[in-house]
Structures are given as structure tokens and as C-alpha cells.
Write a structure and sequence with these properties.
The chain has 5 helices and 7 strands; from the N terminus they run ααβαβββαβββα. The chain is of the alpha+beta class. The chain starts with 17 loop residues before the first helix and ends with a helix.
Length: 171
């Protein structure tokens, strides 16, 4: 009886390399992970949305109403006693989605302002919210609202408010 002896050392298979497989799987998994937007803390949101001015509540209130109108918003309500203002932009309808996909999509932006007197200054807090409403031909409606937290948006509005306050205070 003849026995065949095989070499005892392991032979590497040229196609299958465990290190390459592990690296490939790692790259596939990490390549598919999307980075979530960093959530802002309430204090960070407040610092974006709020400014203080050395003026009266009446001048600040009138300036905010004027700036909202200048930015294309329609004032829904304004109460100087509570210091609360609500406004809404013109709605934009996406007609192509209705034609192509059988549903209607309407986008608009809502804005609110709260103005309060604190000691010798006035604090103004703004809030902008994007609203997307859809309705299908089957009667299903949905609404999606998202807080707009772009600091440049708020900075632009506050610069306009500051200019309006300066003009009103000079008269």
C-alpha cells in the first residue's frame, strides 16, 4: 500500500485572501453610512433666533412687521400687547408633480416673532418654518414642517430689523 504524502505547510489560495475580504467588507459598510446632520442644542438654536436691541417695544414691533412684509410675508396676526407676530409666505405649487405623479405639492414658509421688553432693552426672537403639503388624487393629504435653522437666514432678517429700527428711531 502506497501512501502519498502532502506538504504540511498551508498553501495560500491566490484568489481568496482573508485580509482583503475584511478590508473590502469594511469599506462597503463605512461607505454606505451617511452622516446625520448635527443636532443643535436649545441654547444654540436660541442664539441663532434671538437678538437684543436698545429701543422701545413699539419701535421694534413695527420694524419686525415691516421687515416681514419686505421679505414677502403676509401678516396673519400681530398683537403688540403679547408681542407676538405670525406671518406666511406665498404658497408655491409644484405643478409638475401633479402632472407626472398624480399628487399636488404646495410649499410655503411660516414666520413668527416674539418681542419682549427686558429692563432697558427689547429682545426679538424669530422662527422660520418650511411647510410642505401634499395631496393625492385618492384624497390622501400630508403635511411636513421643518424648522429652518440656517444662521445666515436669521442674520439677514436681524440686519434688516436693525436697519428698520435705526430709521424709525431717527424720526
Amino acid at each position: 500500500m502506497s501512501t502519498t504524502s502532502y506538504p504540511t505547510s498551508e498553501v495560500e489560495h491566490p484568489i481568496f485572501d482573508m485580509n482583503k475580504v475584511v478590508i473590502f467588507i469594511f469599506l462597503c459598510v463605512t461607505g454606505c453610512v451617511t452622516q446625520k446632520p448635527v443636532a443643535l442644542t436649545p441654547l444654540e438654536i436660541q442664539s441663532i433666533q434671538q437678538r437684543e436691541f436698545e429701543t422701545s417695544k413699539e419701535i421694534a414691533f413695527a420694524s419686525v412687521v415691516s421687515v416681514f412684509q419686505d421679505l414677502g410675508y403676509t401678516i396673519n396676526s400681530a398683537d403688540i400687547t403679547s408681542g407676538f407676530i405670525t406671518a406666511e409666505s406665498a404658497a408655491k405649487n409644484n405643478a409638475s408633480s401633479e402632472f407626472l405623479f398624480g399628487y399636488s405639492e404646495v410649499n410655503s414658509t411660516r414666520a413668527t416673532a416674539f418681542i419682549e421688553t427686558i429692563h432697558s432693552f427689547v429682545r426679538v426672537r424669530l422662527n422660520f418654518v418650511s411647510s410642505r403639503m401634499t395631496s393625492s388624487t385618492y384624497g390622501m393629504n400630508s403635511k411636513n414642517e421643518t424648522a429652518l435653522l440656517d444662521s445666515q437666514l436669521y442674520q439677514n432678517a436681524f440686519e434688516k430689523i436693525e436697519n428698520a429700527i435705526f430709521i424709525r428711531a431717527a424720526n
